[in-house]
Amino acid sequence: MEAAMKSCAMSTSHPRSRKRLLALALGSVALALAILTSICQGVAAFSPGEVLQILLEGGASEYYNILYHIRLPRLITGVLTGINLALAGCILQGILRNPLADPGIIGVSAGAGLAAMVVMIVFPDSTSLVPLVAFIGAMASVALVFSLAWENGVQPLRMVLAGVAVAAFFGGAMTALMVFYSDRVQGTVNWMAGGFAGRSWSHVHMVLPYTLLGLAGTFLGSRWLNALQMGEDTARSLGVRVERVRLCLLILAALLAASAVSAAGMLGFVGLVIPHMVRLVTGSDFDYLLPASALWGAALVAGADVAARVAFAPIEIPVGVFMSFIGAPFFLYLLKKGMKGRH
Fold first, then answer.
1. Secondary structure class of 194 (helix, strand, coil)
2. Which of the listed residues 82, 142, 185, 304 has the most CB atoms within 10 Å of its CB?
3. Other C-beta atoms within 10 Å of 209: how many?
4. Taking the domains of the chain in order of start, what are their residue ranges?
5. pLDDT in tens, 49-79
6. 132-170 pLDDT per residue, tens
C-alpha cells in the first residue's frame, strides 16, 4: 500500500515541487522574522544583538527579566498554539474533505472553551486540570456534532451546520456562566477574547507535550490523509481502515485544538485560513501541506501577537480580534467561492 501511495504522491508532487519548497522556505523566513520582531519589540525595545547579549549574560537584571520571564514564554506559547491550530485545521479539512472545516466552525473550540471556563470559574483551585478538561470538552463536542451530522455516514455540509449550532449553544452556556458568576469572570474575559498576555513558562510546559504528541501523530498520519483525499473507496482499496483512521485523526485534531484553546483562549480562524492558503501553493499533498501549515500558523500567531502589543501601545489588543479581522472576511470569501462553484 505504501509503495502505491508513494508512487501516486510522486506522480502528483513533481509539477508543484518548486512551489512546495518555496512555501516551506518562505514559511521558515516568516516565522524567523515574527520571532525576531516579537522578542525585540515592546514597551522596551532591543536590537537582536542586545537580546542575545542580555540572555547570554543572564542574571537578575530588569532587561533579562523582561526577555526571559515575559517575552520568551509568551512568544513560545504563541508559536506552539499557532502550530496546533493550523495542524488541527489541516486534519479536519482532510478527513472531512471540506475547506470550511476548522476547530472553531465545527464546535471543537467551543466545547473545549466551555469546559475550560467551567474549571476556571467554578473550580479555580484546579486550573492545572484545564488542558485535560478542555480536551474532554472538545471530544464531547466532536461526538455531539458527529451524532447530529450522521445520516448513513458523515455529511460534510450537515457537519458544518451542526458545528455552528453546537458552537452557538456552548457560546450561550459560556455567557450564562459569566452572568451567574459575574464576580469571578474578570480573569476569563481576556481569555475568551484570545491572547497571550501574562503567559508564563508554565503555559509552555502545559502546551509543549501536546504539541510534540500532535506533531508526531500528524506527520505519521499524513499518508492516511493523502489516501482519504482520493475518496473512501480508493483509500479502502489501498488498505486503509477508513472509519478507524478517521476517528484517530479526529481525536488528534481535538487534542491539538483543545491544548491551543486551554493556553490561548478562543483564538479562531487560524485553522481555517492557514491550511487553505497554504494549499493554494502546495496542493493537497499532506506530506508538504502539514509542515508548511505548521510554519505559517506559527508565524501568523506570533506576528499577530506582536502586532497586538505594539500597534496601539500602550493599549494591548487581544490577538483574537486580529484573527477575526483576518478570518471573517476570508470565511465569507470561501462561502462565496463555494456558492459560485455550485452554479
1. coil
2. 82
3. 11
4. 61-335
5. 888 888 888 777 888 888 888 899 999 999 9
6. 787 788 778 878 887 887 776 666 677 778 888 888 888
